[in-house]
Amino acid sequence: MGxxxxxxxxxxxxxRRLVDEHLRSYHRYRLQxxxxxxxxLLRQMKAAITELEARGKPFTQNELCEMVGTSRSNLRKYPxxxxxLKQKITLHHIYQRRRVQPAEEELVQRVKEAFIDLADHGEHxxxxxxxxxxxxxxxxxxxxxxxxxxxEQHGSQKRKPRSERAxxxxxxxxxxINVCKASGQPITKERLSGMxxxxxxxxxxxxxxRTLMTQAANEDKQQRQERRFQAREEELIQQVxxxxxxxxxxxxxxxxxxxxxxVHVSDICSYYPKV
Length: 275
Description:
The protein is mainly alpha-helical. It folds into 3 domains: 9-100; 104-154; 162-268, no CATH class. The protein is built from 14 helices and no strands. It has helices spanning 13-53, 61-68, 72-75, 79-100, 104-120, 127-134, 138-141, 145-154, 162-183, 189-196, 200-203, 207-249, 256-263, 268-271. Helix 1 crosses helix 2 (61-68). The longest helix is centred in the last third of the chain and has 43 residues, at 207-249.
């Protein structure tokens, strides 16, 4: 400026006062301009929010910025505008979280399953553990009346020790085995777990229950194989008797090979002792 450096100018009092006055005036101008722009943006945002809310559904920041005609980064430069933006978008996020939450009936069922799973593992049941199982925070869980009622009814009860739970399941499996035997149904681990109402993996966590189920299933399988063998043996005995009579009637030589040919079974004596 006029061949004078920036460092030299401030050494002149009158010049320094003139520059300071100019800078203060410019600063006031910028503040006034900023305030006017902020007020203008607030009016535009409120008008846009009113219009978006009239549509009856929450809106996003992008939708709001598009209607105002500026970017989010620009809006956030203005404190009052930023506060209004944060308030409205927070309400939108709350709505979104609630919208994706499960139906109450579904959540109650998931809570019940969490209770059963925790009990089967012999764990102490707490709200935190249940919430972790159903993948929902404790605060959200307590917002559902039916869930709250279920927790009040069951949450305060002292859970059974693992030994008591094992004994209870053992008795249930025994009852299921007796029912299968009385009705003639095959005894399998899958059938027993279905009758008890507890999945096979959970039942197998208890050694006594696992042993009982395995033993009952194996014994039933062996008994059924023996009965099938006996039935087949009795059937073949009758066929051999008929074959003997047929050979006599035709005055043919009776031999093991001749009988096997008639009944269509080879090496019959090796497999069926009674025959």
